[in-house]
């Protein structure tokens, strides 16, 4: 069975996508990955030998052709290019990574190939953003969403939200794959490192690092030898300054560190005691899940989608109702090593449900049912 996966840019630096593509290929699907980008096809991940990769607007060694392709990419939608590659490849099913990819493969296209739309985030946020666009674009998005054979969401609770934006034919929950970590690679919580981490891009609105700095600052007088580390993409210097000024308010500026991206993030999890995760919402947080697979107890907010399903309050971590509650539960975790070990052990066991072989089997079933349903 032939599967075409479409992502308009940065295909070759998206770790999740490479893992997903390679997993499909290894269970027997004939996989073609298609993008349409002049500059951003990416680098850093490897697709298995046998996976076909096509960039419809790639930069070439011909400068005249490059000028044409650059202008074409800026001025015209790639509908005709996608129409041609679909006709040439003749896939049995198409899987789209972004909403723009759904537009590219269905808008003004007359094929009858079933299309699965992936939802990698929290649908009300992702789709709500699209509904703020100009009326003609909203209509285009609604039309192509209505034509999709199936929507994929990351959490069961997200299934009803798709109907707020279109009339879906089918909505299926499939979580992200969580790599299972052997015991030798997990955090050893019997040895206290006095280290709290938060693995997420440094961003105010969605990730809310300032809430964690505030909680840590309130506790710092009682835990002066603990440290707080932020790991993830850095893009907003003004927000970073705000975080450090907040830490300084409590005299904790020498114990709060903004570290940036780490290529071997498992090492960070292994050297921590607590993963505090104040995010406002997630699709399915791989950062949170990966920390749990490494045996870390977690702390998040009870009203944060995804976070409030991965963390089971009092079992593998704590969920807080507000900032005061978050602070008190952080205190409890910092004070109680036995509780941290109990939560960490439970977290490892809970992540088994998201083992790659289980998740890819869900995808295999969805793909086969989608193709057979169209036939």
What this model shows, in words?
This protein is of the alpha/beta class and 375 residues long. It has 2 domains: 2-177 and 355-374, Glycogen Phosphorylase B (Rossmann fold), CATH 3.40.50.2000; 183-354, Glycogen Phosphorylase B (Rossmann fold, 3-Layer(aba) Sandwich). The chain has 15 helices and 13 strands. The longest helix has 19 residues, at 356-374. The chain is globular.
Low-confidence stretches: none
The number of strands is 13
Intertermini distance: 13 Å
CATH topology of the largest domain: Rossmann fold
CATH homology superfamily name of the largest domain: Glycogen Phosphorylase B
CATH architecture of the largest domain: 3-Layer(aba) Sandwich
Give a quick precis of the structure.
This protein is of the alpha/beta class and 375 residues long. It contains 15 helices and 13 strands.
Comma- or semicolon-separated keywords:
single chain, 2 domains, alpha/beta, 42% helix, Rossmann fold, 375 residues, 13 strands
Secondary structure elements and their pairing?
Elements: E1 2-6, H1 15-26, E2 30-35, E3 52-55, H2 63-75, H3 79-89, E4 93-96, H4 99-106, E5 115-118, H5 123-130, H6 135-147, E6 150-153, E7 171-173, E8 195-199, H7 204-207, H8 209-219, E9 227-231, H9 237-249, E10 256-260, H10 265-270, E11 274-276, H11 286-293, E12 298-301, H12 307-310, E13 317-320, H13 323-335, H14 337-350, H15 356-374
Parallel strand pairs: 1-2, 1-4, 2-3, 4-5, 5-6, 6-7, 8-9, 8-11, 9-10, 11-12, 12-13
Helix pairs in contact: 4-6, 8-9, 8-13
